[in-house]
Amino acid sequence: MAFNYTTSVEFDYLFKILIIGDSGVGKTTILQRFAQDYFSTEYVATIGVDFQIRTLDIDSKRCKLQVWDTAGQDRFKCVVSSFYRNANGVIICFDLTDLESFRNVNNWFEEVKRYCPEQTPIFLIGTKSDLKTRRMVSDDMIKNYTEKNRLSYLETSSKTNENVEKCFVDFTQNLVAHTNEMEMVYKKDRKPEREIDLNSRRKTVKHSGDSGCMGGNKCTI
């Protein structure tokens, strides 16, 4: 099944989403599965950044997702860091069969806090859930980390398509709710501009001596 995008499609929300995590955890395959319903066992490292576009209907609102797939290698971090700016949300991926990739999640989490706007929504994704016999990251380890950092979490498999659609739908719902909440806070905190009526009647100002204000609105000196 293919998902076509045309520039004439209107949308209610536009979200820029970054997918980050160690090299080889499956960031590209999860995006390919979501955007193109495509999966390949061939591994090709992402050079710098790449992106895909897809729209989702969330609560009768059309949401256009611009999802950026970032390189996990250290040599690209100086390039990737610039893409954190103006991100509406970030998905951090780790490989359930690679304990080191989970240990490095906190490094990626700190990068989000360093480069992204404050309160940017973050979603944690465990990849390759189909490889159950090779699993190295326990449920307790994940639960402790997500509860400590108040992160939403979901396990996915690009190969079997398990929870791939759900993770993007759930995260987009979070982004819509977060955007609406921030808009309400902005409107509440915004002070109304003081209106000045140029035609309002001026008060009479009296001066000592011969000069003074006569006849209400007109002053004579």
From TrEMBL:
PROSITE patterns for the chain: RAB, RAS, RHO
One of the record's GO molecular function terms: GTP binding
Q: Which GO terms describe its cellular component?
A: endomembrane system
What's the main place this protein lives? membrane
Keywords annotated in UniProt: GTP-binding, Membrane, Nucleotide-binding
Q: Where in the cell is it found?
A: Endomembrane system
InterPro entries per UniProt? P-loop_NTPase (IPR027417), Rab (IPR050227), Small_GTP-bd (IPR005225), Small_GTPase (IPR001806)
Q: Which domain of life is it from?
A: Eukaryota
Q: Per UniProt, what is one Pfam family of this protein? A: Ras
Protein name (record): Uncharacterized protein
Which organism does this sequence originate in?
Answer: Rotaria sordida
